[in-house]
Specification:
- This protein is an alpha+beta fold and about 400 residues long.
- Helices cover about 50% and strands about 20% of the residues.
- It contains 12 helices and 9 strands.
- Strands 1, 2, 3, 4, 5, 6, 7, 8 and 9 form a 9-stranded antiparallel beta sheet that branches.
- A hairpin with a 7-residue loop joins strand 7 and strand 8.
- The longest helix is centred in the first third of the chain and has 36 residues.
Amino acid sequence: MSTLLHEPAPDFGQPIAVLKHCHGRIRKQLGTLERMLSHLPEHGADEQARQAASAVLKYFDKAAHLHHEDEEQDLIPMLRAVAQGEDAATLQALAPVILQDHKDMDALWQDLHEQLNLIAEGGASTLSAGAVQRFVQRYTSHMEREESVIAPMAMRLFSPEQMARLGEAMQRRRGIDAGAETQAPAVGQAVADLRKDYGQASLNEDDVLDDPMQQFTQWFEQALKAEVNEPNAMSVATVSSEGRPSSRIVLVKQFDARGFTWYTNYDSKKAQDLRDNKFAALLFFWSELERQVRIEGRVERTSDDESDRYFRSRPLKSRLSAIASHQSAPIASRAALEENYETVARQAGEDPQRPANWGGFRLIPERIEFWQGRRSRFHDRIVYERQADGSWTRQRLQP
């Protein structure tokens, strides 16, 4: 189980894109809630469960209400001021539903809040499936209404000036300086001149833990607390049988003493590379903390049972997408892709089974390097290397 955080947000010059981005963050937190239902009975309130509960609490306690206020105080009143005819009638019918949704979702959240607090503190390991399902269903239907009606209406009706006004209001609500957010870099600035001096922290041999996986866990927890954008996003680099490297961003779904696990289509480009060359490299980059972690090792498939458990924990639409998409294969159009999805959705029902060509990979680390940015490019680098007996050595590298 892994706690998913948000992708880098668009700037507030695109306020509707920001609202949709908020929906993406909400969906990821809802997915975490659903995964906790299957994780807790098997593992209890372990470290992963506590981290997941804390992340969900943090988002819905501190961020979700801002999205509601964006709609109640700015978006809907601005639409009411410009909507006419059919748009006005649609808004008159839908706006009260959206406002009532906010009240209902707040009430449903209170049902979950106490349970999640206890899990986060390690004091309980149960979560009401009914409460989670009601919360997820209400939020999902609410977001679908907004995405299908409200967002397209705003895109049609708002002038650039109105969009700017909406974005500025959203920034103020979040305590962001609009001038700093929208200030453009100098035109023609050379790429070679784009540099940032680092200086937040240092990394010393005496500070790091003996076990690199424990050290990674410590850094990952700090990234969560710092609200790093997608701390679980990592680059996976593979090499083909012809010796050609390629890389892509995926989300790590689990990390423990065994290694780092992610899931994909076994017919994808990265899977084909791994059939020919079992070695790969991972890279986590947490710019907010001026840190990166480089990991190299051998990759193996997860067991069918482990892949089945994770597949069942995914939202239904994500499972259907995994079945419908022949990852990396060409297709004629987006319409054809969506037609494949609709066909699978009709045939698969509410509990689709994991396809045989979809599952997990786990990289078993042999080398892990922790990099901490320092001033004047005099960075700290400490590398761990696994020995034949399974123990780890560590040493400092020059920047």
